[in-house]
Amino acid sequence: MNTKILFSVLIICLSIPFAGKAQLAFSNEVGVITGPLLFQSDFGLRNNVDTNINNQGWGIGIVHYFNFSYRADCNCYTRDRYFNDHFKLRSEADLHYTKFTHEGIESQKDTDEGRDLRDHTGSSLVFELGMQLEYFPLSIRDFQAGGFRIAPYISLGAHYVGFNPSYESSQDVPGATPEDIYFDDFLVGDGGELGGISDASGNTWALTGSVGIRYKLTVLSDLNLELRYHKYYSNWVDGLNPDPEFYPPNKYDDSIVWLNIGYIYYLNF
To answer: Does pLDDT of 141 surpass 60?
Structure first.
């Protein structure tokens, strides 16, 4: 994981709330989110129920919002424009961890390959920094004023991602490594260009999209429920990348589906 790049991006994200307050006078919101996630990876069969159920992780995040509908400097609403009343800009830092096992028909077979799959496990710790633009079809002003309790939204954004995978095998074979045990014919080197297994840290980008709702608790706080999808532009986030020439199912990059609940507090309302 490139520490200098991550540190630089973190400083930028943390400086956004202060820039908004000092120069643009927008209202700010902060909060925390947490919840389970499903990691779609090269472990197990894609779109398999057992794979989805067993390869679950957990994530937590810190979020910040620019609220364009309200001004912090005068405690008043901004000019009544469509963008101000229907969009928010969110920046966030997320951390999630997932353990992996091979599931599905192939791993259940009583063969050498089936035993290799059952004995090969892994995990990945992922850190993300990024921004999303949220669109609220209903009026943000009316929601803040108590006109209704629930406000749905959709969002689209991008994250910078740092990942740290690991792997192991429980087979007791003298002199053998996990690379030797797991499908030799499908792997070309350890983390080589053509594919394999690797526990090397790395960096990539993710495209994010979500649907969610806000529930008004008080004038100064909301509950947030969100279903989110992250598409990673790397196939190494889980530490496993079989050569597609020998293993045709390996044709997708890694991704997650994350269901989270959050608490949002209005700093300047």
So the answer is: yes
